[in-house]
Amino acid sequence: MTPILLDTDPGIDDTMAIFYAMADPALELVGMTTVFGNVYTPDGTRNALALCELAGLDIPVAEGAHVPLVQPQHPPADFVHGKHGFGNAALPDPTRKADPRPAHQFIAETLAARPGEITIVAVGPLTNIALALQHHPEITKTAKKVVVMGGAVRTPGNVSAHAEANIWNDPHAAEIVFSADWHVTLVGLDVTERIQCTPEDFAPMLRTSPECGALMNDAAAFYFQFHIDTKGLNACFLHDPAAIICAQQPELFETVTAPITMRVDGEQAGRTVEDSAGKTPPVTICVEPDAAAIKARFLKHLRSGVLP
Asked: Are 46 and 93 in contact (CB under 8 A)?
C-alpha cells in the first residue's frame, strides 16, 4: 500500500484525484491539506471535508495558506471550476470541522509520525509545502518523496505561454520546493495533457457509485464545457489524478532528471526551466506518459463501486 498526504485546491480535477485516491485499495490517503488556486482556501477546505463525508472516509483535513508567499494572489479559476469548485454541482456543508493545526504543522507532524513512509502529492500551488520546509526543514528527511502536479517544461503553459497554473499561482513557493534536498517528481503539462477522458468515460460511475458518480458527472460537465469552449475538445485532461498514479506507479512515466530553475517574476513568471547547469538538486521530470495504462487504472477504480 502507498500512503499519501494530498495537498490540494479542490476543484474538478482535484475531485477526480480525491475520488481515485479513496477508491484504489492500494492507496492510503492519510490526510489532506488545502490551499488557494482553483478556489479560495476556505472553499477548498469545505470541499475536501464535504467529499470525505460523501465518500464516508474519516480522515483529517487541515487548512493551509490563503495567499502566495510573495506575489499578489491571482483570482481563482472559476471559469474552469465554477465559483465554489464543483462547476454547477453542489454538496451540503460538511458536519466535520478541519483539523485545528495549520497545514504546514499538520504536514510536518504527519510525516514525523511515519518517517520515510508517506509521499506528499501536491496538486495545487506549492505554498503549504514551502511553508512546511521553512518552519520544519526536517521534512526533507521524513517525507518519502514529493510528487508535484505542475509545470510545463517542454510544452507551453496553460495560463501563459510559459507557465502552468499551479506553479504560476506561487512561483516563489515552487522555487523553494524545487531547491530543497529531497526527491521531487514533476508531473506537468508535458504528460497530463496527453491523458484525456470523455463524458462517456465518467458515465458508468453513475451506476457503480450513484452518489459520488452523480457529483463527478455533474461537476465534470462544467469542466468539459470549458474544454469545448477553449480548445474545441469534448474531453478533459487528467492533471491531478496523473500525479497520484505517478506516486504509485512511476514506471508508467518516462522521465529525465535535471535541476529546475524557476522564473519567479516578469512575463515568464511561473516558467519551469529544465537546467542541466543548475545548482539545485535534480528533479525527476515526467516527459512521456503511458496514457492508455494511466487512464485505464484511473477508470478501473473510479468505476469499481468502492465509493457510495
From this structure: yes
Is residue 308, in this structure, part of any structural domain at all? Answer: no
Averaged pLDDT in 10-residue chunks for the chain of 308 residues = 97 95 97 97 97 96 98 92 89 95 98 98 98 98 98 96 97 98 98 95 94 94 88 91 97 98 95 93 98 97 94
Q: Which of 239, 240, 290, 301 is catalytic?
A: 239
Q: How many domains does the chain have?
A: 1
State the pLDDT at residue 90.
Answer: 87
- Judge residue 194's burial from the number of C-beta atoms within 10 Å of its C-beta, 0-12 exposed, 13-18 middle, 19 or more buried: middle
* Residue 307, domain member (yes or no): no
Give me the residue label for grid cell 496523473: 242
Predicted local distance difference test score (pLDDT) of residue 119? 98
Whether 66 is a known active-site residue: answer no
Question: Is 240 considered catalytic here?
Answer: no
Does residue 161 lie in a domain region? yes
Determine, yes or no, domain membership for 76: yes
Q: C-alpha grid cell for residue 100?
A: 485545528
The CATH number assigned to the domain holding 76 equals: 3.90.245.10
* Range(s) of the domain holding residue 112: 2-302
What pLDDT, on the 0 to 100 scale, is given for residue 78?
A: 87
Give the pTM.
Answer: 0.97
Catalytic pick among 7, 9, 240, 290 = 9
